[in-house]
Amino acid sequence: MERLETWFRWLVPPLIGGAAYAVLLLLSQFEKPDGFVWFVLLHYVLLMAAFYEGSRFIARRLDRHLPWTGQIGKRLAVQLLTSLAYSSVVTLLSYTALKLFMMARYHQPDHFGLYHLSLMGAYGLLLALLVNAVLLGLGFLQFWQQEKLRAERWQQESTRAQLESLKDQVNPHFLFNSFNILSELIDDDPAAAKHFVDKMAEVYRYVLSSRHVELIALSEELDFAQAYAFLLDKRFGDALRVQVQVPADSQREYLPPLALQMLFENAIKHNVASRRHPLTIRLWVEGSQLLVSNNRQPRPDVGPVSRLGLQNICKRYAYLSDQQPLVEPTPTDFLVRLPLLSLTDPLPAA
């Protein structure tokens, strides 16, 4: 892409400048003095170079402050209006300088008036539109390539998230513990065993249905978390507590699917849970963030912390939004702030 842009920077000004002068020469009915042809041709080439470089500078500044993502119409209007205004000023200043020089150098009759300024300004705007068409084409091409790369990157991260989630839930320990609990419930309480199977099916159904979803409503994620917490409760009993305090209006917001499952697994993996020292996982909302915390009771048998689950969540947020999760560990608690997103939120700049 950079190589293509370099070629355009070298080729567009002389091509459009030469073509513009050729049209003007064909329309002209006056014989020009010696040296006039090449001088004016050079003027047009330099004018197109000024158009191109100035408009390119404007486009690069807008890439930082008004990216294409999520606001294409506004970006297009601002870039065109700004570039055309700049080109009009450059056209009128350069034409004035050229006309005054020609009058002094070749003693031309005085044709320097409002009519000629207006005509040259209109001609300059037409040429500026051609230059901006080239720059906008390059900008859209670059935007398309970035969005394609972003989509591929999200697909990779989403696939990894699904695999990590499935590995966490279908690993031998999880199945072994779940089936042991189910076996005990079948003998002691068949109705509870049926309820346990229903919750297992609900958990796996959610995992499978959210495989290709970028965002999911918080209400659905909380339903899944409650079902998942039910299975964990049967496994840990009083050693694990899950407290959810999320108002209904916040549940209409969105977040990446399975983010809560990863945080639950992270808390269980790295902390001791016992009846004497229960592990408590809390969920609540502050502003536009979902807060997930657990008390810290580090397990002595856990190896080096990989933080793969947290990294996975952060990378998915990086694709979906400019907002990022915040991890705030303290000596007593481990807190993660998950931004709650709206479907109308702009995508992050590439």
Indicate the topology.
Elements lengths: L1 H26 L8 H30 L6 H35 L7 H57 L1 H17 L1 H20 L6 E2 H19 L3 E6 L8 E2 L3 H12 L8 E8 L2 E7 L12 H13 L5 E4 L3 E7 L11
Parallel strand pairs: 2-4
Antiparallel strand pairs: 1-3, 4-5, 5-7, 6-7
Structural notes for this entry:
The chain has 9 helices and 7 strands. It is an alpha+beta fold and 350 residues long. It has a 5-stranded mixed β-sheet, covered by helices on one side. Strands 1-3 form a two-stranded antiparallel ribbon. Helix 3 (72-106) packs antiparallel against helix 4. The two termini are 15 Å apart. The relative contact order is 0.08. The model has no long low-confidence stretch (mean pLDDT 80).
Concise structural overview:
The chain has 350 residues and is an alpha+beta fold.
Which secondary-structure class do the elements indicate?
alpha+beta
Sequence stretches where pLDDT stays below 50 over 5 or more residues = none
**How many helices?**
9
Distance between the termini: 15 Å
Which key features would you list for this structure?
9 helices, rod-shaped, 7 strands, 5-stranded mixed β-sheet, alpha+beta, two-stranded antiparallel ribbon, 350 residues, 65% helix
